[in-house]
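*** Residues and shapes ***
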Amino acid sequence: MGLPTLRPPMRKSPNGLLQIAFAGAALVAVGCNANLYDPKLATRPYPESLQQEKVVQVQVVPMETQIRFINATSTSYDNIDVWINRRFVTHMEHLRAGEQIEVKIENFRDQWGQCPQPGGFWRTRPPTPIVITQIQRDETQPLVGLVTVLPPDVKVNSRDPR
């Protein structure tokens, strides 16, 4: 038996810590960036030929990653398409009288498959402001406007004092 071999003490490499920090930052950047564009989810263009008939008391409340619909009317809407910002659309089976439902923002898509930018802590870009919301009942009837509740920091036009 020989004498044990002495090894120098292990040192913490500053390069190793930098590599770990860089890998963690890359995971956060990739994991928290929502897929806002998917051509397989493309819809149709906004129906420019249909005019808006009226505005009903259905409140649309944008939240961080969802949109809340509050139907304060006595009218139920079935088998409808809901348009936001005259660009993004999603299909809803129903919005019953007195009902309150929440729909994920990423369920709304445009003709290229893009969805509005959601809000939230991990977002990488400013959220898309929701300023106009409409119901489309079919291909021929006029659109129905909804009451969109705007957050206080959203400017509708350049003359808006907010």
Confidence is low (pLDDT under 50) at residues 26-33. The two ends are 85 Å apart (CA to CA). Strands lie at 52-62, 66-71, 77-84, 88-95, 100-104, 133-136, 143-148. The first strand starts at residue 52 and ends at 62.
